[in-house]
Amino acid sequence: MKIVALSGSIVGSKTKTAMLKTVDMFKQKYPEHEITLLDLADYKVEFSDGRNYFEYEGDTKYVAETIMAADAIIIGTPVFQASIPATLKNIFDLLPVNAFREKVVSIVVTAGTAKHYLMVEQQLKPVLAYMKAHIVPTYVFIEEKDFLRKEIVNDDILFRLERLVEDTVMTADAFEAIRKKKDEEYDF
């Protein structure tokens, strides 16, 4: 299974810290799966201009094609101005409407306060649903107080990240089994 961990911001350290921890957990628990970390801070991604994702070049093409080739995606995002960052929205704009069809998507959110937890429910999940994602229902919400010196110090958050890793793989496996069963119904 190909899994992409997408760190959806080009500034700050908390989302990247959370995604690095998540990737480490994946590698420890599921070494048989291929996991790729796409930290948008490491790439120069063009603004979407309406072209098909495969018509872009360089980093933009690499990021879009890597996401499109994934079986599961873990999106890490901070909350900026009670919304997702423009860099993450640009990724969604670069991809086709059905980009997440038959893909499992799970979410890790970092925020300054608990007041922003509804951003996931009101903004991010509707976009992912529109793009046909199989969304893992629970997500991990990490506040400023859960970090110390670029480390997650809250054991409950670490436990929830582990659970998210498991839920992502189990959900992807379940949907793969459903797809296979459905395909077997056809006689050709």
TrEMBL record:
Among its keywords, does the record have tRNA processing? no
Keywords from the named record: Flavoprotein, FMN, Oxidoreductase
Q: What class of enzyme is it?
A: oxidoreductase
Lineage top rank: taxon: Bacteria
NADPH-dependent FMN reductase-like domain span: 1-144
Recorded hits in InterPro entries, A to Z, give: Flavoprotein-like_sf, FMN_Rdtase-like_dom, NAD(P)H-dep_FMN_reductase
Kindly give the Pfam families that the UniProt entry links to this protein: FMN_red (PF03358)
Family matches, as Gene3D superfamilies? 3.40.50.360
Question: Which GO MF terms are attached to this record?
Answer: oxidoreductase activity
Which Enzyme Commission number(s) are on file for it? 1.-.-.-
Recorded protein name is NADPH-dependent FMN reductase
- Organism encoding this protein: Sporosarcina thermotolerans
